[in-house]
Amino acid sequence: MSFSALGLSEPLVRIAAERNYLEPTPIQAAAIPAILRGGDVRASAQTGSGKTAAFVLPALQLIHEARGRRNRGFALILAPTRELTAQIAQSCRTYGRHLPQPLKTNVVFGGVSINPQMMALRGGADVIVATPGRLLDLVERNALSLSSVSILILDEADRLLALGFAAELARIVALLPAHRQCLLFSATFPQAVRALAHNLLRDPTLIELPATETEIPAILQRVIEVDRAGRTPLLRRLIVENAWSRVLVFVATKYSTEHLAEKLRKTGIGAAALHGELSQGARTKALADFKAGKVRVLVATDVAARGLDIVALPVVVNYDLPRSAVDYVHRIGRTGRAGGNGVALSFVSAETHAHFLLIEKRHRLDLRREQIPGFEPSEILAPAVPASGGIKGRRKSKKDKLREAAARVERKERD
Ligand code: AMP
Questions:
Q1: Which residues line ligand 1 (CB under 6 A)?
Q2: Where in the chain are all domains bearing CATH 3.40.50.300?
């Protein structure tokens, strides 16, 4: 299967070849022809599987073909984080490089001055990549109208459809013309948002690759039991011993990002913090420094969990576990991208043991627990995988443990 066989025009086939894309990935092979036919699409595919090109390449072609027409519209691509919008806009510019008439791509997101974005929108745009809040601000200031959107694309669509973004998304959808193509892409589509997704789509082509969300064969998932207090020295030891060149570490709070980065720096490991309350300049710099290899460790909240494409990222560490099981998939999906291999480590302590069992249950995982000599937890954790032999009847069954875990979470929620 080649890119031209999917119906893409020569300038787009050429850029794929230049990027060394030897053949379309499965999501590209499935989505590109459906999009070029003009239909709606809902596609889920594992992280790092070439989703961006799967919607950007055909969208550029459709917008380009419509250029001469009187009522030509523009493509609106929505994404949940600023970093992701910037990354998608960059892909649009790169992939469109050889089109005979260049397309104008604008990126709009909050946290920076709105005036340059208003100026840049003068004279219109062919592609606008936006976070929902800033897009609505610009509409309110009459900097753009959504009535000529011809293609609406939601990347990380389940996140945009869920609480937190749902109200803004509904306002945006109300401003769109009735006739538009709608494309929803995500690695995950929980049942709860499927119904909402359905309301946006007309007779969509449904693409689901692979069948389960956590089938990410290129990522080795490891679980290490360690006391809370032992996590920082253990992380340090693992980074040094394994000579990891680049590590993305997820923590639960903004404070922890700064605190842990500072602690690592004090021991001579270059580290930067990334969270939602930094200035946009600081966020961009932290990510750029990390991508350029100027800092070895990026300590981030879930703001970095979605969509970011960091080439050659060998390791992701869940220093704190994600609150939601869905975010586990997005976090670990930052590694093992585009056919590369990756390791995802999760630190589990006596306090978080039950929560990790729930994450495993949700994704039908059953991962072996490891302990690292010198960092064994002082509190005894119920072993998830029995040691060899064992006395029947004494060890709790997995079901018992799950029941206990669920009861503990319920208790916690009640308290
Ligand atoms: P994405 O899932 O869109 O974030 O893409 C993940 C990575 O895969 C990016 O670094 C792309 O450059 C790369 N990629 C996209 N399409 C292909 C392809 N057909 N062959 C090889 N790599 C690709």
A1: 21, 24-25, 28, 48-53, 309, 311, 337-338
A2: 4-209, 218-414
